[in-house]
Design goal:
The chain is an alpha/beta fold and about 350 residues long. Helix content is about 40%, strand content about 15%. The protein has helices at about 1-25, 25-35, 60-75, 90-95, 110-115, 155-170, 180-190, 200-210, 235-255, 265-270, 275-280, 285-290, 295-305, 305-315; strands spanning about 40-45, 50, 60, 80-85, 100, 120, 125, 130-135, 150-155, 175-180, 195-200, 215-220, 225-230, 230-235. It has a five-stranded mixed sheet with strand order 10-9-11-8-12, sandwiched between helices. It has a three-stranded parallel sheet with strand order 4-1-5. Helix 3 (about 60-75) packs antiparallel against helix 13. InterPro entries: Bact_solute-bind_prot3 (IPR051455), SBP_3_CS (IPR018313), Solute-binding_3/MltF_N (IPR001638). It holds the Pfam family SBP_bac_3.
């Protein structure tokens, strides 16, 4: 009886919260729902994260996170408009309202979060700054690169990280700045630069797209923490909550063993209270976010759980060929950890 009373109290509290939130309109969230389409900012083109396929259809890790969010909102992965943005224009496009959310290899930093009128939401990918050089150069570590000319992307954290490293180690270098990743990659291959400095996952993606990937070496060292995640504009806590708990739900689906192939069966048979909440058997999570009770079921059916998205676009069987490493679940030695969804 005590258990039933507690459950009834929790259900009533969730219903009250849902009613309160329905009455508290979030301007950005309501505008997106009324428009019927999600405007999602993505990379201008990099393998693994966001790149048009042979038919011109955008594919990638970040693209699938955009598609999954459209499913959460509209139960339709196609109700999303992609806006390719350069590193130097991405935050301006977000703060001006050109896009609703930015899923674009963007590192969460304090000064971005507090000083640009935008909010970092939740980490979806862990990375770190590295350098790529010609294998024939026989360079094993960055300290051997004194006097090098280094390709960098303007408007990224990598500019400052590279300058800090060389300055702190009393080494000289010459930066060559580009607006886009493909421009820097072309300059590297044309011998305009001795090295390319950016995050390791992007270096792996760039190398996979080169004519002879074996000619290029990514140094083992990492020089920064680069947690990628979505950004939204300030001013709508309701929209922030939707994006935050959406990312958590994709991760929690993998933690709970929910996949594209078994999601219906798990929903029908599970007795685990957390999984029942996640899959909408009890509807309080969807109510709290003003979403369909089956929002997580619909997301997993459309794009899969976190591991399925990662392996499809970034994993060892893809051209990018990245082991999960820090992006593995915490129960398997990685850093991915979904907040409790209750």
């Amino acid at each position: 009886m005590l258990r039933r009373a507690i459950l009834a109290t929790m259900t009533a509290a969730a219903a009250l919260l849902g009613a309160q939130r329905a009455a508290e309109a979030g301007p950005q969230y309501d505008a997106i729902k009324a428009r019927g389409t999600l405007n999602c900012g993505i990379h201008t083109g990099i393998a693994g994260f966001a790149l048009p396929d042979s038919r011109g259809v955008w594919q990638g890790f970040d693209v699938d996170f955009c598609r999954g969010l459209a499913v959460a909102l509209f139960n339709d992965p196609n109700k999303v408009r992609y806006t390719p943005l350069s590193s130097s224009t991405r935050f301006t496009a977000l703060s001006s309202g050109e896009v609703d959310v930015l899923f674009r290899t963007s590192t969460g930093t304090m000064l971005r979060d507090v000083g640009l009128g935008i909010r970092y939401v939740s980490t979806a990918f862990y990375d770190g700054h590295g350098f790529m050089v010609r294998a024939s150069a026989n360079i094993a570590k960055a300290s051997e690169m004194g006097g090098a000319t280094i390709c960098l992307i303007q408007g990224t954290t990598n500019e400052g990280i590279t300058a800090d490293y060389f300055r702190s180690n009393n080494l000289s270098f010459t930066p060559v700045l580009f607006a886009r990743t493909d421009q820097a990659a072309e300059a590297l291959q044309a011998n305009r630069c001795d090295a390319f400095g950016t995050d390791a996952s992007q270096l792996a993606a760039i190398r996979s797209s080169m004519p002879n990937p074996s000619e290029w070496k990514i140094l083992d060292e990492r020089f920064s923490k680069e947690p990628y995640g979505p950004y939204v504009r300030r001013g709508d806590d309701e929209w922030y909550d939707v994006v935050r708990w959406y990312v958590n739900a994709v991760i929690q689906s993998e933690e709970s063993g929910v996949t594209r192939t078994n999601v219906d069966e798990v929903k029908r048979t599970t007795t685990n209270p957390d999984t029942r909440r996640l899959l909408g058997v009890t509807p309080e999570l969807g109510q709290a976010l003003k979403l369909d009770p089956n929002w997580v079921v619909n997301i997993v059916k459309a794009v899969g759980n976190y591991g399925e998205i990662y392996e499809r676009h970034m994993g060892p069987r893809t051209p990018v060929g990245l082991a999960r490493g820090a992006n593995e679940l915490w129960t398997r030695g990685g850093l991915l950890y979904a907040l409790p969804m209750r």
